[in-house]
Amino acid sequence: MKTFPIEKLFEVINETTEILQEELKCTYLEALAETGDNLFHQKVMQAELSELTEKRLAKKYSEIQLSAYHNEEIRKAYQFAILKGMKNHVQQNHQMTPDTIGYFISYLLPKFMNGKNEIRLLDHAAGTGNLLTTILNKKAPDVNMHAYAVEVDDILIRLAYTGANLLMHPIELFHQDGLGPLLIDPVDAVVCDLPVGYYPNDERAAEFTLKSDEGHSYAHHLFIEQGLNYTKPGGYLFFLIPNDLFETKEAPKLKQFLKETAYIQAVLQLPFSMFANSQAAKSIFIIQKKKPGIKPPQEVLLAALPKLSNKEALDKILVKMEKWFQENK
Ligand code: SAM
């Protein structure tokens, strides 16, 4: 039977992860980060393994050559393994950003950046880094992107670190609260699949305009404010938001805050079929941080995005978007 490259790569990643999981008595995701390190350094890095296990691993790694794969193949094989490890173990809110969303944002980002070829990009809730690495894989060759990833979960940031190494992407990683002070100069663009829910740290929340008047504040509102704080005037922010963002009781404050600080550019509703149920459905929300001399778009780009497989509907939307860009950018 013919083995396709990506399948072979996944097989090696998966089998060596299982061997390490067994030997190191750890979770699949922890073992996956270890095997990713081994693949990157091209040697077995875990000193505590028996000689036999080390030989088994080395033999398995020798079946592939990472340099023979395209970056998208490496990202996908690694992503399949992460999805396997996350199955039943990761809460909905911490899921990896699906590829369709990454592809849409990869298409939109350069259009808004308007020919800029040095871009500093921040994701302050970066998870596994899948959204960032999708964008970095898809960027035009003449564009230099330097990315910053902030994530509070120790295993997810490890996976993001290993993924960035395997793909040779220049991502600086910060293992910390994405709502804490960040040692990052303002960036040209922010991308963030917002963690939706309450932020437990009321003391820190009190430093944000969008803090709640009583009880815990909405983390997703604070993440929008934090994103704006770390964006240069005139920079763009691409958020994945829950569809009911502007319908909750805290929404009026958010609307007022956005009116004062940013220009809303686009709200693109993602196909419902991508989500477990309609309550979980999300949109891509694009804003520009205000800067003297910059005008708002004549009209906000509003669209319901079709499934990527629905070529006819997709072409129609792309034509509508192109027209919007011509008239507004
Ligand atoms: N884009 C990511 C990817 O492709 O893997 C997925 C992001 S996921 C929807 C939201 C992430 O926010 C989760 O990884 C979660 O651990 C992280 N998160 C939640 N609260 C956070 C906080 N206060 N600071 C930093 N990260 C946080």
UniProtKB/TrEMBL annotation:
Q: What class of enzyme is it?
A: transferase
Q: What EC designation does it have? A: 2.1.1.72
Name one process (GO BP) from the record.
methylation
**One Gene Ontology term of the molecular function aspect:** site-specific DNA-methyltransferase (adenine-specific) activity
Q: Which UniProt keywords apply?
A: Methyltransferase, Transferase
SUPFAM superfamilies this protein is in?
S-adenosyl-L-methionine-dependent methyltransferases
Q: What is this protein called?
A: Site-specific DNA-methyltransferase (Adenine-specific)
Which organism encodes this protein? Siminovitchia thermophila
